[in-house]
Amino acid sequence: MSTVLPSAIPLTGLAGLKQNWRSDLLSGFLVFLIALPLCLGISMASGFPPSAGIITAIIGGILVSRINGSFMTINGPAAGLIVVVLGAVQELGEGDPMAGYRYALAAIVVASVIQILLGVFKAGRLSSFFPASVVHGMLAAIGIIIMAKQIHVMLGVAPEKGSSLLSTIAQIPHSLVNLNPEIAIIGLTGLAILIFWSVIKNPTLKMVPAPLLVVLSGIALARYFDLEHQHMYLFLPDAHFLPHHEETVGPAFLVAISEDFMSSFYFPDFSKIATLEFWEAVVAISLVGSLESLLSAIAVDKLDPYKRHSKLDRDLTAVGVGNLVAGMVGGLPMIAEIVRSSANVNNGAKTQWANFFHGAFLLLFVVLFPRLIHSIPLAALASLLVFTGFRLASPKTFAQVMGIGKEQLFIFLATIIGVLATDLLIGVAIGILVEFLIHMLSGVRLNNLFRIYFAIEKKQDEKNNDTYIINLVGAAIFSNFIRLKADLAALEKGKTVVFQLNNTFLLDHTVMEFLHDFQHNYEEQAGRCIFIGMEYLDTYSRHPLAARRMKPDHMSRRKSDQRGL
Question: Are residues 430 and 456 in the same domain?
Answer without folding.
Answer: no
